[in-house]
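User: Thanks for the earlier help. One more: MSMEG_0569 family flavin-dependent oxidoreductase. Can you show the sequence and predicted structure together?

Assistant: Of course, both are below.
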Amino acid sequence: MTLSLKPHYSAVVIGGGQAGLSASHYLKKHDIDHVVFEKKTVAHKWKDERWDAFCLVTPNWQCQLPDHPYDGDDPHGFMVKDEILAYVDRFVKKVNAPVLEGTAVTSVEKIGDLFKVETSAGMVTADSVILATSLYSRPAIPRAAERLPEEIVQLHTIDYRNPNQLPEGAVVVVGSGQSGCQIAEDLHLAGRKVHMVTGNAPRCARFYRGRDVVDWLSDVGQYDITVEHDGMTKKKHDTNHYLTGRDGGRDIDLRKFALEGMSLYGRMSGVAAGKMLFSPNLKDNLDAADRVYNGINALIDRHIAEKGIDAPPASVYMPLWEPSSEPVELDLKVENVTSVIWATGFSPDWSYVGLPIFDGTGYPVQRRGVTGIDGVYVLGLPWLWTWGSGRFLAVGKDAEHVVDHLADYLEAGQPALRQAASR
């Protein structure tokens, strides 16, 4: 869609990913004039920031973008990269959002009753603004990376594609979240020597008692729990559980990888004199991940017992391997390490937002996307409202809630605002 910039919009959406497109879908349904500003290209993260063997971790049936549910023949399978891109591309075409690609937003401020939005294509005003740029704006790489030997190739997960892109030799993967563990597995299956640096990421079974764990958790109601439930307010900062949908889905067990030759370490504490340094907490990290694994299975056990469901017998995971020591350093030259993959997550970029909507951690203060400033909304964040808020499962539900609120706000606005919204 080729657009020319208007001086004023009833709503401005910042970010052209699944959250921004979902917002546009509902804005269209309300007949609210709007524009979507996208710094790069629509849904570019799915196209440009995923490795070749990437696949969904949640089953296909959880793909529930607005008016665009999964329509394939394998609802309990896991779409691979090309299938995901095709699914997203169909959604992009269906929404046909008024997007200005290659347009960076540099400033959002409130001027009187309106919002002033500065972009690389010019300035516009708006009655409302939806911030849909997610928490995954900038790769987070520790400063210790600067002290690695120059000859070592360093990549963040967004730049990793496959084992063949790396020079021969051993690879260090720093970070044991979903991406780190899946990339470590990708390298391991390709026969590469992998040194895996663990953190506090929990893990989850893929299948348990005859079904995908996600299916059980859906039945239990885990995906309906909101961030306002007791003990859930800190969930937005949690690391995702590691498992995979690869080859039909399976557990990721770092202990099993260790038996097969992968070297495991505790959290990285620094780099000095050609060595990577670690805290002596490998056993603690593995044990904590297994406690979550067994805890989720125990939750399912209780559900099965309470409902009287006929299912295969319960089980408890017992460690396949235990570290005999706590390695505190890795000599990169001695171990022929030629590459480091930083699976250390992302940091948000809210620098363009000149509005007082953030808490002390830099996270927007909001309730299901509605901030304390009239006309300002956020979308697409992990645990914005539920477990699925940042994903295909529930981003559309949150977008519908936000746009309904926005429509009511415009409808109740002062005459000057209603006049501006009709231009």
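User: Great, one quick takeaway?

Assistant: The chain is about 25% helix and 20% strand.
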